[in-house]
Design goal:
heterodimer, A: 425 residues, alpha/beta, nine-stranded mixed beta sheet, four-stranded mixed beta sheet, 13 helices, 15 strands, globular, B: 367 residues, Amino acid/polyamine transporter I, two-stranded antiparallel ribbon, 16 helices, 1% strand
Chain lengths: 425, 367
């Protein structure tokens, strides 16, 4: 009996060993980094910038956060400040990611924790010289997830993060999530995670892309005194940071950076990004403005949605890749019914043809642009892998260097299925 | 051999299946992918087929000596000293597997969750659990295995299903991986991944007949074959081969990728529980088999001192693994490549010798 009691006592005692006290973290001891920015350092290799909640009410936070530049610390939402709306920003120059994070801990007053880091921002300068080392270090960090979103900041990541304030509500984390998921509603920027970028960066059969983030100085918004453009310009034709708009929020996600290996080679505007997403089978929906001389407004306003998955087939004939892509879309006409008679089947068929040919043409132009830069950001090479029986054959073929020689044929299937709320006006 | 108590086919099946499945949670899938590329998932089927053939020979041997455990059969078929040498080799090999499992588990735990916890602390707590379960005996171990089997299988299938949004069919190509001939050869050698089915033969006395061993063996190989193949398939569908070979714990990474909006994400902590349960059951089963064989070889009745000593050796062995390359490259590869010898070749030799020497102990009605 005594032995049983001793045994139970021993079991009970082992419970004290189980809570894992070495890794226990009091909630007050850590600060969750919401956004991590990386630039080329000036006094060292890496410039790290982190944004984190100051754990105060938004109203109290002005000047209360960690200050990176003395007098600027009390920004309280002012431009140039390092604290705003319950969030603060700290930057440090360091020789590596991991040491930099240790250095940050010296000024944050809490242990920086990256398990809740939703967004990682890399600077354009860094991307133009190669990201391999940076991405490898980030992906190897035990707290950072492959599912974190990856952004490429025009200018510096530091400036972008500093300009980023809670715009709607008070939770930046929630804002990031909802914001980036807008990719699925508009198609103006892709949805790229750290894991996806890394896979494409080291892939023998495809190249990587990244969402472009930029600060808009509102200079493109000409205001009341500005000249009105003679004709409508498609909204997607702008590049990141140049959208003609004005408002409280200075930052925007727009367009796509194209990579060859770990180096940025080119940039796509909003519309090109949509066409890229169609070819990658990542496009969900978006409103497209299609130039059309036959209707009075001069533009067909079409809400385009994916009808079926994009089909890609690749055949290698005489060592030349022949790619066939079939994009399947459905549209809803948004134009005023005064300009389009939807009960006239012939007119609708004509509109469908115009839209189809426009999209096909733009897809072709995009493929040509990427082909000239020899960067297969469409994932055609992944489909081409079916042509090879062994990995050795795949590597010997060297898809990434052969993409420029490929013959790509794009087919678009588009049906106008819906109209707006008015069928006659 | 000491009577270990009685248990049924279901309990034996789950004990054996969980013991085999455990390795898919560690670094093994990364190593398999580095050897086979996208072909890893179906090479696992080759391994399970070869293991089934090996198990058929073990059954044949058991049928010649009904109601006897494998260590006894070795002695009866090839003589006391050679038999003890065979049992000793198996015994040492099982100890190496426990040490390997523990090191692998500790390393993955360190990488993904417990970064500040010292290695000795994690291993020590695990070894204490190992000792407690071993003290309670085989019946307790098999019932624990059956009790948790539902949670283990449900947890693993949930991860595979929830991760489905990340699957990409093009990752399965090039379909033959690195080289078909090499693949088949490695697939045969890697049959040792299913070698823990030998536990059933060691405790054949507790299973009340060769017929029951056969049923439990086939069921556990089928279950573990399906689970391991599906897991490897899911892993390869998620990560292209050039990424798959560099991930420390593929299943854990897979669970980290599960993301259905703001409400269903970051659920790997649930998977962590499954991971710990599987490792505990698996390590205990193998450790207890090691203790049981050791005690039989040296005719030791009181196992408790041996369990304590075994725990010290296991703890020291796991602590000796200096780094992840030691754990991943040396340990796992060595165990997989040498595994067929103690698991399948030695029973085949014993069967051949017993047939030549016409050693047989009647027939088993239930076989």
């Amino acid at each position: 009996m005594i032995r049983h009691k001793l045994f139970i006592l021993f079991l009970a005692a082992t419970l004290f060993l189980l809570p894992g006290c070495y890794d226990a973290q009091e909630i007050d001891d850590v600060v969750h980094i919401t956004m991590l920015g990386i630039d080329k350092g000036r006094s060292n290799g890496w410039r790290l910038t982190v944004q984190f909640p100051t754990l105060k009410d938004a109203g109290q936070s002005g000047g209360g956060g960690s200050s990176g530049n003395g007098g600027d610390g009390g920004g309280g939402g002012e431009d140039g400040g390092y604290s705003a709306e319950g969030y603060s920003v700290v930057s440090v120059d360091a020789p590596s990611l991991h040491e930099g994070l240790d250095m940050l801990n010296a000024s944050i007053q809490r242990r920086a924790n990256f398990t809740q880091t939703h967004v990682i921002v890399l600077s354009e300068e860094l991307a133009s010289t190669g990201l391999a080392d940076h991405i490898s270090q980030i992906i190897n960090h035990y707290e950072i997830r492959r599912s974190a979103y990856l952004l490429l900041a025009k200018g510096s990541a530091h400036d972008f993060i500093k300009a980023n304030k809670p715009f709607i509500g008070s939770s930046l984390m929630k804002n990031y999530r909802i914001w980036i998921e807008q990719s699925r509603n508009t198609g103006y920027f892709p949805y790229v995670t750290l894991g996806a970028f890394y896979e494409d960066m080291v892939s023998p059969t495809s190249q990587a892309i990244m969402t472009i983030a930029a600060i808009n100085d509102f200079s493109a918004f000409s205001g009341d005194g500005g000249k009105k453009s003679a004709e409508n310009t498609p909204g997607g034709s702008f590049k990141a940071g140049q959208i003609p708009r004005i408002g409280d929020n200075k930052i925007e996600l727009w367009g796509t950076a194209l990579f060859s290996g770990d180096t940025m080679v080119s940039e796509l505007d909003g519309d090109e990004t949509r066409f890229l997403l169609m070819l990658r089978d990542e496009f969900t929906a978006g409103n497209l403005s299609i130039p059309a001389a036959e209707i009075s407004e001069g533009i067909i306003s079409l809400n385009v949605r994916k009808a079926r998955s994009t089909k890609v087939s690749v055949k290698i004939i005489d060592s030349v890749p022949h790619v066939r892509v079939a994009v399947s879309l459905k549209g809803s006409l948004q134009n005023a019914q005064t300009s389009v008679e939807i009960s006239d089947e012939a007119q609708v068929a004509e509109l469908e043809k115009t839209c189809r040919e426009y999209i096909k043409d733009r897809l072709g132009q995009l493929v040509e642009k990427c082909r000239k830069q020899n960067t297969d950001v469409f994932g055609f090479g992944d489909a081409a892998a079916m042509n090879f029986l062994t990995i050795r054959q795949l590597y010997d073929y060297d898809w990434n260097s052969r993409f420029k020689d490929s013959v790509v044929e794009v087919d678009v299937d588009l049906t106008i299925q819906h109209t707006g709320k008015l069928i006659k006006s | 051999m000491k009577d270990e108590g009685k248990f049924g086919v279901q309990e034996a099946t789950w004990l054996c299946a969980i013991t085999i499945i455990a390795k898919v949670l560690f670094t093994s899938p990364a190593i398999v992918t580095s050897q086979f590329g996208p072909a890893a998932w179906y090479m696992s089927l080759i391994s399970v087929i070869v293991a089934s053939v090996g198990f058929a020979f073990i059954l044949k041997l058991l049928k010649r000596f009904p109601r006897r455990g494998l260590p006894e059969i070795y002695e009866l078929s090839i003589g006391r000293i050679p038999g003890s040498v065979f049992s000793g080799i198996l015994c040492i090999f099982l100890l190496l597997i426990v040490i390997q499992n523990l090191s692998d588990f500790q390393e993955a735990l360190h990488v993904y969750t417990y970064h500040n916890t010292p290695d000795w602390y994690t291993i020590l707590i695990f070894v204490i659990c190992l000792a407690i379960l071993s003290f309670l005996g085989l019946e307790t171990i098999v019932r624990t295995a059956k009790l948790f089997s539902f949670f283990v299988i449900a947890g693993m299938l949930a991860v595979l299903l929830l991760a489905a949004e990340n699957y990409d069919i093009t990752n399965l190509f090039p379909i033959l991986g690195y080289d078909i001939k090499k693949n088949i050869m490695h697939g045969i050698i890697r049959s040792s991944a299913y070698g823990e089915v030998i536990i059933l033969a060691v405790f054949a006395r507790s299973l009340q007949g060769t017929g029951y061993v056969k049923k439990a063996g086939i069921a556990s190989l089928t279950i573990s074959g399906i689970v391991i193949t599906l897991t490897l398939l899911a892993y390869i569908l998620t990560f292209p081969f050039y990424i798959a070979e560099e991930v420390t714990s593929p299943m854990y990474e897979l669970s980290q990728l599960i993301d259905f909006g703001r409400f269903v994400q970051r659920i790997e902590s649930v998977f962590l529980l499954v991971w710990i349960l599987v490792t505990l059951i698996s390590s205990t089963a193998i450790f207890y088999t090691f203790i049981s064989i050791y005690c039989f070889i040296f005719r030791i009745d009181d196992r408790r001192p041996i369990i304590i000593a075994g725990c010290f050796i296991t703890f020291a062995g796991a602590m000796l693994q200096s780094n992840v390359s030691g754990v991943v490259i040396s340990g796992v590869k060595m165990i997989r490549s040498l595994g067929p010898i103690p698991f399948f070749i030695m029973p085949m030799i014993a069967l051949a010798v017993s047939a030549i020497r016409k050693k047989k102990e009647g027939t088993d009605d239930k076989a």
